[in-house]
Amino acid sequence: MVIICFSDANCAISNAMSSCPVGMFLEIKILKTACLRLLDIDYTLFDHRSTAENPIELIRPYLHEFLIDAYSEYDIMIWSETGMKCVELKMGQLGILDNVNYKITALLDHLAMITVQSENQSYGKKTFDCKPLGVIWNQFPEYYKETNTIMFDDLRRYFVMNPKNGLVIKPYKRTHSNRSTDQELVKLTQYLLTIAELEDFSNLDHSAWKSLAEENAKRRRGRQFKAVHTVEV
Ligand SMILES: [Mg+2]
Q1: Does domain 3-232 have CATH number 3.40.50.1000?
Q2: Distance between CA 54 and CA 48 in Å, rounded?
Q3: How far is the centre of ligand 1, averaged over its atoms, from the C-alpha of 218 (Å)?
Q4: Distance (Å) from CA 192 to ligand 1 centroid
Q5: Distance, CA 170 to ligand 1 centroid (Å)?
Q6: Which of 3, 90, 123, 126 is the most buried (most CB within 10 A)?
Q7: What are the pLDDT tens digits along the chain (233 aa)?
């Protein structure tokens, strides 16, 4: 990992690409729109802090349904701040790598991350790691770019290099209390399928994702009601 200031970012991304493997590419599935979706693991896909006899019990509700629906429109990559062995182990235990209903395009680990230093008038200098999308865009410019990429994480700081492409998801914690009520991935599926129709994501404000997803779900329910009503008449 390299420590850089924001002004050196492009140079550091090039260095990260040339000096270390970006990740493990499992499959490249080229879609009409070639949308790319990057997912974080810990607290996004599962609760890595709670304990359970079987790791399956720690999975976020609706995870596989979410991946199946999204796979119809998006390429999916998983990016974690841990090492590749750990990423593979977790994904294997959760049944994500061998699912017959969807495929993962790539796994990325901490080697594809960079460390940045920001300076804020109130808090002074702060150093932290982030996930620069330029690592992927530079490697596959014909498929993935700013206009067709969306990235989810429970930590906003990971998007610092590409804030317009990031969507902050509520962390999934205390699985034993929250398993029956967590609906985050259901809403996120609605949002993803809604925006998949757009050719360009760069004008979207992902911070308003929940209201757009709810509006769209209401509209769909309205259409279904109208259809049923028409049949009954
Ligand atoms: Mg996380």
Answers
A1: yes
A2: 12
A3: 30
A4: 19
A5: 10
A6: 90
A7: 334 444 455 555 555 555 445 567 676 665 555 577 888 888 888 888 888 878 888 899 999 999 999 999 999 999 999 898 999 998 998 899 999 999 998 899 888 899 988 777 665 788 889 999 998 898 888 888 999 999 999 999 998 999 999 999 999 999 888 888 999 999 999 999 999 888 898 889 999 898 888 887 777 777 766 665 665 65
